[in-house]
Amino acid sequence: MLPVVVIAGRPNVGKSTLFNRLAGRRIALVADTPGVTRDRKQAEAKLRGRDVTLIDTAGLEEAAPETLAGRMRAGSASAVEQADLVLFVIDARAGVTPADAHFAQWLRRQGKPVLLVANKAEGRVANSAILDSYALGLGDPVGVSAEHGEGVADLMAEIADRLPPEEEAAEADDEEADRPLKMAIVGRPNAGKSTLLNRLLGEERMITGPEPGLTRDAVSVTLTDAQGRAVEIVDTAGLRRRARVEEALEKMSVGSAIHALKMAEVVVLTLDAVQGIQDQDLQIARLVEREGRACVVALNKWDAVADRNATRKAIMERLEDSLAQMKGIPVVTLSALTGAGVDRLLPAVRAAHEVWNTRVPTGELNRWFEHALEAHQPPLVNGRRLKLRYVTQAKARPPTFVVFGTRAEQTPEDYTRYLVNGLRGTFKLPGTPIRLQLRGTKNPFAEN
C-alpha cells in the first residue's frame, strides 16, 4: 500500500491545479469557477523518490448532509480518514478566511498529520497572508504557486519528509541515500555548460562546438560520484538577455532552462573566465537567489586565462559587491575542455547542498538572537523602539527564519541585513540564500 496524500481546502483555492502539478500531468479539470471538482480524483505520483497515492477532493463547505455540497464534504471527509498526510490548501491572495479557520480546527480534531500549503503565493502581497496563516495552528506554511510551479519542488520535499517511514527502515534509509541530488548547469551561451557535463560523465553525451546555442532543450542525466552517490544533472540552454531572445524555439528553450533551475537543489552557474563576469551572469545568479537554490560558481576555461590572480580577484570582488544576498558563494576554477579542476566541482556541490539543508537548534538560535540584540539594539521607528522578542527557523532548503516581536514588520532593511549577516557568520551558512521573515505580535492592551 502506497502512502496516501490528500489535498483538502475550501472551494477555489487551487487544489486541482496543485493535484495536477504534483501528479505531473493534467488529470483534474481546472477552472476559475468554484466547485468544479465534485468526486475525489486519485493518481499515483513520485515525490522526491517516494511513490504516493494523491487524492484531490471537493471543496470543504458547511452544508446539510442531503445536499450536493453536503455529499461532497462527506466524500472529502472520507478521504481525510484514509490519509497518511493532508495538504490543507489556502488562497494566499485572499488571506486566511473564517472558513479556513473553521476547517483547520476540524482537521486538527481528525488527528491526521497536516501540512499547510499557501497557494497563489506569487508576489509580495501573499507574504503577509503566509505569515498570518501561522494563526491556524497547523505549523509552518509552505508557499507555492501551483499555476506557475513556484515552490512546488520545496513542497514535494516537505511531503516526502513528513510521510511515514516505509515498512523496512533499512530500505527507507537506502532509498533516501539513493535519491539523487538534483543539480542544474546554467549560464550564458557558449560558457561551456555541455562540455562540462560531458567531462563529468566521461563521454560525449551532449553535442558541443564553438557555435553558441547548440543546446536547446534541458537534458537530464544521472551519474554516480566518487563516493557512490547519485547526482541528477540537467544541462540547459544558454540564457541570454530577454531583449535578445526572439525566436519562438529559443523562448521555449529559455523557459525550459528556467524551469530546470527552479526544480534543482543546487545550481552550477558556469562562467567564461576569459570574458570575466558579465551583467547577464549576475542576472542569472539573482534568479538563483530569488528561487532560493544553493549555488556554486564554476569558472570555466581557466586554462586559457593569462593573469589568473588578477582575474580571480576581479571576479570575487564583483560577486561580493553584486550578490550580497549570497555572500561567500563557493567558486571552483576548472577547465571542462582539459578536465583540470573538474574533480573539485561535485564535492563543492555536495557541501553547498549540505549548507542549504541546514537546520539550527532553536536554543542556539535564540542565544545568538539575544547576543545580536545586545550588540546592536533594534532601531527607533517613528520615535518608538522596536521590540524583537524571539526567532525560530521555519524551514531549511533554503534556511528560512521568522522573527517575532512588536511591530517587527517595520524593521528597517539595514537592520534586517545585520541579522542575516549574523546568521550567516555564526551558523556557517556561506553562499546560500537566507530568508528572514518579520512578523509583528499584537499588543492585547492596545486600544482598538
Automatic annotation (TrEMBL):
Domain EngA-type G span(s) in chain numbering: 3-167, 181-357
Under Gene Ontology molecular function, one entry of this record is: GTP binding
- Amino-acid positions noted as binding GTP 1 in the UniProt annotation, renumbered to this chain: 9-16, 56-60, 119-122
Q: Tell me which residues bind GTP 2.
A: 187-194, 235-239, 300-303
For this UniProt record, the keywords arranged alphabetically read as follows: GTP-binding, Nucleotide-binding, Repeat, Ribosome biogenesis
One short Pfam family name for this protein? Answer: KH_dom-like
CDD domains in the record: EngA1 (cd01894), EngA2 (cd01895)
Source superkingdom = Bacteria
Query: Does the keyword Protease belong to this entry?
Result: no
> Per its UniProt record, what InterPro entries does this chain match?
AAA+_ATPase, G_ENGA, GTP-bd, GTPase_Der, KH_dom-like, KH_dom-like_a/b, P-loop_NTPase, Small_GTP-bd
- One Gene Ontology biological process: ribosome biogenesis
Q: Which family does it belong to?
A: Belongs to the TRAFAC class TrmE-Era-EngA-EngB-Septin-like GTPase superfamily. EngA (Der) GTPase family.
What the entry lists under PANTHER family is as follows: GTPASE DER
Fill in the subunit field for this protein.
Associates with the 50S ribosomal subunit.
The function of this protein is: GTPase that plays an essential role in the late steps of ribosome biogenesis.
In its UniProt entry, what is this protein called?
A: GTPase Der
| Taxonomic classification | Bacteria, Pseudomonadati, Pseudomonadota, Alphaproteobacteria, Acetobacterales
Give the gene symbol. der
